[in-house]
Design goal:
single chain; 421 residues; 3-stranded antiparallel beta sheet; two-stranded antiparallel ribbon; globular
Amino acid sequence: LNAEGTHWILNGGKIWISNGGIAEIFTVFCKTPVVDEKTGTVTEKVSAMIVERAFGGVTHGPPEKKMGIKCSNTAEVYFENTPVPVENVLSQPGDGFKVAMQILNNGRFGMGAALSGTMRTVIQKACEHATTRIQFGSRIDGYGAIQEKIARMSMIHYATESIAYMVAGTMDSDYEDYQLEAAISKIFASEAAWFVTDEAIQILGGMGYMRSMGLEKVMRDIRIFRIFEGTNDILRLFVALVGIQFAGGHLRELQSAISNPISNFGVVLGEVAKRGKGAIGIGTGNTLADKVHPNLSDSAALTCKAVDAMGQAVEKVLIKHGKGIINEQFILNRLANATIDIYANASVLARCTKTLNEDLDSAHHEEMMTKVWCNESYARIMDNLNQLKNPEVLDNFKTMAKISEGVCAKVAPVQGNPLGF
């Protein structure tokens, strides 16, 4: 802050800025000294501010040469003694993280919606080829291997769209906290789009590899979606840890109740009953039965079973690892995968219920996709959760950590060539 207190003086730079070479206005996140009003101590916190190129001291590097999204100008941006009026700070100094999360939430939600459209076009291209390509005397869309690909592409696209609508509904309902849902949408959509495009290229065979079909460009362009707006690897940890925070709070309440069981008898008794049922395999039951169309009751029951299993798994890892869970990334990834699948289940069940209730032309088709999706999703969820209590799998996690250490120590594969050269 300058001596007059009228401007922040900005110095520094940032790589990989979209439109960095052409933009006249920037949203900049930077470290600023913030005074604690109560203690008077000064700490560096992230602030967000609007910076105009016209302020002076703003320069940029050459456009980056990228794998895809080549129409997007990406460049380094530098600030040298750039004066920024104090009124250009968004919210208050030190509130940069909150502002960033709001921006990222919108960006992550937008990816799910945009990539749904991408997948729709890609599936159309694959089907146009499959229904006209004759091989061994028949159209290839009649062969089981191709049918499975098209079905899986369609189901994951349906799930992606459903999640995008679900998140949009949450936002339209004026919920302020939808960061978890937005992160799930981003992870799911970016990986689904890659899967769908890869399978489409496979269906087209050699034609899919040709530039003229346009699929290779789609594949290059969508690869970035698993990286920007928060890498999927980091967002998986975020999804798991945010969910665990709630479970941890519940456990702390229970510990407090147990320490004074007389005055908290109802709470303790309820937990004992719940754990007793869980121990003998009795869950909460199909609590979604009255929320979904009757045709989807069995799929809803599977989702409820998955939620019960998820709750038990989270509680056990929290009791075992405590605060150290933040360092158990093998475990957190499995919890995140289960969480993502559960949210996808809820989304397709809600959407398909609406379609069935309105008796739309696509109702039967959507019902088929929803049932298969929920069946297979349940198997994935239980596989991820069962890994967390399997001693052999947990030992494998430890061994993989050592394997990685060995490779990184050599900065290359450890094994030599068996032919000796």
